[in-house]
Amino acid sequence: MLFAGLDIGSTMTKAVIVDGNEKILAALVGPTGAEHRHLAFQVMDETVRKAGLSFEALDFIVATGYGRINVPFADKQVTEITCHARGIRAIFPGTRIIIDIGGQDSKGIKLNDAGTVANFVMNDKCAAGTGRFLEVISETLGIRLSDLALISAEAEGFVKISNMCTVFAEHEVTSRLAEGARIAEIVAGLHEAIAGRVVNMVRHLGIEKDVVVTGGPAKNAGLVKAIADKVGLPVWVPPEPFITGALGAALLGKGFAKRNATRNQTRRMESVTFFA
Amino acid sequence: MEQREQQGKTAAVKGTDMARKVRGMVKNIYQSAHEAKQAGGKVAYSMIMSQYDEILRAMDIVPLPTENFAGVCAAKRQMDRFLLQAEADGYSQSLCSYARIGLGFDSLRKEGSGIPDNSPDGGMAMPDMMLGSSSVCDPRYKWFQAAGRFLDVPRYNVDVVSPPIRANLEDTRDYYIRYQKEQFRGLIAFLEKQTGRKMSDDRLWESIRLCDEAWRLWYEIDRLRVAVPSPMPSQDHFSIMAAAHYYAGTQIAVDFYQGLYDEVKYKAANKNGVVPDEKYRILYGAGLPPWHTLWIFNYFESFGAVFVIENVYRAYDPVEVPSSVQDPVEYLAWRTFLRVTQWHEKASARSGNPYVEKLLEMAADYKTDGVVFHACRSCRASTLGQTHIKNLLGRYTDIPMMQLTSDMVDLRDYSESQWKAQIGAFIEALAARKRG
Amino acid sequence: MPRDHENRENEDMTAGAKLDELYKNRGVRAKELHNAGAIVIGYFCCFVPDEIITAFDMVPYRIQGSQSEPIDEADAFLEPMACPFVRSCFNMALKGSYDFLDGFVAPHSCDTIERIYGIWSHHRPSPFNHMINVPHMQGPSSEAFYRSELDYFIKSLEDWSGRKLENGKLIKAVSLYNERRKVLRELYDLRKSDPPLVSGTEILKALVAGMGIPGAEHLALLRRYVAHVKERPKPRKDKTPRIFIWGNEIDDAAFIQLVEECGAQAVMDDLCTTTRSFWEEVPETTDPVEGIARRYLATHCPRNDVPQKECSRISDLEQRYGYIKKFIKDWAVDGAIFYIVRYCDTCELEGPDLREYLNSLDIPVLMIEDDYSISTIGQLRTRIQAFLEMIG
After folding, report:
1. Chain A CB contacts of C385 below 8 Å
2. Cβ contact, residue pair C386, A119, below 8 Å
3. What predicted TM-score, i.e. pTM, was given to this entire model?
4. Which of B112, B231, B241, C33 is least enclosed by beta carbons within 10 angstroms?
5. Which residues of A touch B77 (CB under 8 A)?
6. Do residues A139 and A231 touch, judged by C-beta distance below 8 A?
7. Taking a C-beta distance cutoff of 8 angstroms, is the pair C358, C365 a contact?
8. What is the pLDDT of residues A226-255, one digit of tens each?
9. Does some domain include residue C333?
């Protein structure tokens, strides 16, 4: 039995294929990008080939993420909240709180004893506390996203960034630079600000251990450390934080197949319009 | 850094000596509540301008003004943890930030079974009751209803009603005053139940006398401020208002304003101005002050611009209650009605808006060169209508006007660079008009 | 026989289609009446009695905004931190959409409505402008005061129109609107089955459709509509989650439709435009104004302060939300979604309290704060779906 999960996020598209023993056979991550109209097809196709399989061999396909409704060949659409919960549960069974920082939104998910979603919060209206915020500000500072962690490691404190509105914060960063603040401390300040924003949102849920941080920005050790400081508990990061949603989607597919959920009868690998 | 800057600049500006005493008076509000609790007295969360101050004083209930506490937190830049706690509890970031701070404080107190460590001015004592009102805005009664989530104490809210501007006062006066009186009577009955004591009319009259005297003196002080150069700036107003609102109905307030009156009179007579070279006189048109960044007044002063008078927190001029009124509660109801309808006649005769009439009179009396408004993102009551007032004012005067936007206590809605740019442009407009 | 059935079916279909048309083309009927010489009185919120306006032989018109039109002109006169529903209504007024109103009545229901009265009547004055002060407190003195305010409103209408309010006509108007309330409750009863016979989207449309037409016309349409819905074939039980929707001014079906599209049944609601505006009847007494005052003052709007009976959190919540418990039980609700149009201080203070109460009844709650615009509603899809996945 083979199950696929496809997570189309606002900036990255992720795909995972697992077998009946929940073993990952293949995983793929690529940029979403507005012009990738055949993206869902391409990513799925590539993942299938990477696993040395054929598309027809997939028993169940679950699509998730912001672009989930644009995947005509999926058997089911499930939100990334439910998928992250399922994916993280497979990696860290004792998880109670998931902090997912996405490209354009961030989420907090609380799991119950059974490991399913008990509650969640979401910030989807504003770039503050998301990957987008880091992206914009690192552009202003002229540094690469992947260098943020290293740079902040050199900081001996942080410059307080009080504006969380991305536009205001950009101004603020520029004026701090003009005042002679060091880039390392500014980057540390940004991590501090995002962590504050996200953790405060997650506090709505009541924070308990274990806490897991996932999503692309979880690769930034500086940000994760800032989050851990705010949470006051150790936080865990999955080995590949990008794919937890897609993994969860694939695993949920196994459950659906087991319960004989209706499959997509017209499932065909063809070009699809994405973000039309 | 900003705080240091603030102190540096404040020292360069000559405010009143009396205003420096206010810090201690404010601190004492919270201190006396803690002391009252220890001595077995009753403490009540309260809202200023609810028109019931004297009733509380006459019954020895110590008022604890929760909005003021929010202002204190902001002035000390210690508001964030309270705001964040309230938001984590589910209160929207667009909700009144005074309420968010108060609810956040009570939530933290409940969570930690005690006053949160290092709370400004020792924090608010646990109240015995919560007394809100519908005067000024909606959150002022809803807040205490919501606070029931954290505080197991009774609440009592009173209506404070004011007739719409076009209402015929002859047709409405009787039933407005009757309702107001009944609302106060209801409050008194509640307080008598809570304290187990009857209210004495004599004590209420005494408290009314003291309150009216303090407010009369305060009015006289503001009349002295027409002097050029300005003897007392708006940042002092935002301090000295504490006596009238938080010590209403006490001798302390009367003595304070007598002292301040003497000082302002002396300064006016000796042309002892706030800044050495007063170039522009500004009217603070509307909106709660930016408690988080009061040093911004000093920034104006660095351009020779002084805020000479303001239309917030001193809401009423003295009124004349008919001498036929013999009952103190009826007096309070009458006074409320007369206060809230003070500008109705003038408004009906011209602009249709009481604030416009008041501001026009202030602009003329105080010879102001410009008007500044402060829009607060989380305060509907003090913000909505500012643009309309500004538009209407523009029909009767050509002085420059500016609306700054942030919040009364939430710093996250404030951008220093934006404000400085806006202020710069405003000063240029003032200068251009002066040049003619 | 079959032919008769067919005829009735057609006629009944017309009732639904007619309501749909009135929902889509709001104001058309009122404009028509205005042009034919009728006096149309526009008002905000749930506190201005339709009964009084109707008894004057005038047409009550509940002012609505538009969630699909951008707010562009209003910002020059009204601050953006005002309730966006009110900003939208005012924006429409500035563009002339409400020029057909012969009267403009604002109740002092909240800070924003109180403030808009002066601004609106300055920029777009109607021939008749009036503000009704509504007490925030409840109790005998508040009822007496509100009654005086209604008497003053009646006097102002009389002075302006030259008409005299007849007690008999007012009594008749009270029973007309009570009848409409009854038929609406009947319609709501048809949501009790699993799945409901009528969707939340349809209900909202039927309600909004009635806000700009004479009560008698709405009642006639509703009667036919209810009869038609009753005839619908009973669908198979489907176990989809049954949702209660709470919030403020939802006068566009887009949000409820989104909830239903996400795989839920919107089975019950408490909104400014729904039950809050009609559920309870006006007591039919010989002094109709007194009954009206009592009924309208008890409106379940968060801007009302329900006094404490005793000092206990549980009793306070029960006192305030006991009526919702009945909704939850009788309509077999599985979960609640709060949809709060931003900048409504009273709703924002109420939300966490009601959530606490519903959680105590084991009803999970999703709290959403949003702008008054359908352009951003799609962004809520993930949250709603995740909530349904969570409770499903």
Report:
1. 78-79
2. no
3. 0.93
4. B112
5. none
6. no
7. yes
8. 999 999 999 999 999 999 999 999 999 999
9. no
